[in-house]
Design a protein that fits this description.
This protein has about 300 residues and is α/β, with parallel strands linked by helices. It is built from eight helices and ten strands. About 50% of the residues are buried.
């Protein structure tokens, strides 16, 4: 499935080394292309039943037909909270693993159906709502795909202007959404621990992986630059999916962040990596959680009574 790569511990790790996942159910958002599809195939090959949660079910079914294993396709539009709620309300039975993989990258200024800036609304708020709504069913872990972009320009969460209406750039909006993914993971793990839940929250990033995500950048010059980068410098989607797969199956502590071990974390074997100071700030993580609850109308469902004011 994926070429073997060296880990920092001196061994090798590849998708072929996934543990047996028979009897497990997995949801992968944005599973019809890129690292989402590659991860879906690897998880299904390992025995999991994988639900492809996709906006376009026709494309999802075409993708599922190429997966080797048990799959089904369900509609999910992360840019529409009504769609997120419908997906979650239809869920029955245990869900062992949720992979928050879907994302949009460096788009021209757009808004979700609920009026949020598209990148923050899709990459963070959609997954925030989905996770909280599905959490009563989740038994093992939540893996959220972030990016090295969370470090760009010392980005911080602009609580006074989350839509960046006063100073929007596609790059800044993308970086803010990826920082939000890490802060979400940090606070989710804190809440899981305090509630006594065995579920773990982890994050991963693919490094520089050649996928179609970059093809939607607002600038045609940037799109051309990325096409060249994808061709000559990026690793393929199989290697880009390895951090997600490692975070999804390895015995790692909650709030871990997995990425490639190569220079600049652009490529290489999956390993634990660092994050920016802003991404590790627990106070900012709690504030973002409260704001996200207000914006989405969803709440952490496992909280003890004394956590209500946290």
């Amino acid at each position: 499935m994926a070429e073997k790569t060296n880990t920092q511990s001196g061994g090798t790790w590849s998708a072929d080394r996934l543990p047996g996942l028979g009897g497990r159910t997995v949801v992968v958002t944005g599973a019809n292309s890129g690292i989402g599809l590659t991860a879906t195939d690897a998880l299904a090959r390992a025995g999991a039943h994988v639900v492809l949660a996709v906006r376009d079910t026709e494309r999802g079914r075409a993708a599922a037909a190429a997966v080797h294993g048990s799959t089904e396709v369900r509609r999910l539009d992360l840019a529409d909270l009504a769609s997120v709620r419908a997906f979650a309300e239809a869920w029955q039975g245990p869900l062992h693993l949720l992979v928050n993989n879907a994302g949009v990258m460096m788009l021209p200024r757009q808004r979700t159906k609920d009026g949020f800036e598209m990148q923050f609304g899709t990459n963070h708020l959609g997954h925030f709502a989905l996770t909280n709504l599905l959490l009563p069913h989740i038994t093992d872990r939540v893996v959220t795909v972030s990016s090295g972009a969370h470090r760009w320009g010392g980005v911080k969460i602009d609580f006074d202007d989350l839509d960046l209406a006063a100073d929007y750039t596609p790059q800044r909006a993308y970086a803010q959404s990826k920082l939000a993914n890490l802060l979400f993971t940090l606070e989710l793990q804190r809440r899981l621990t305090e509630s006594g839940s065995p579920v773990r929250a982890l994050a991963a990033h693919p490094g520089y992986a050649a996928t179609n995500l970059q093809s939607h950048a607002a600038s045609p010059v940037l799109r051309a630059f990325m096409r060249l980068g994808n061709r000559f410098f990026a690793q393929d989607d199989r290697a880009g999916a390895l951090p997600t797969l490692y975070a999804a199956t390895a015995d790692l502590p909650g709030a871990s962040y997995v990425g490639p071990d190569g220079l600049g974390e652009l490529r290489g074997a999956p390993t634990l990596v660092g994050r920016s100071r802003a991404a590790g700030d627990p106070l900012t993580a709690r504030r973002l959680w409260r704001v996200s609850e207000d914006l989405t109308g969803t709440h952490f469902p496992l909280a003890r009574d004394e956590q209500a004011g946290v």
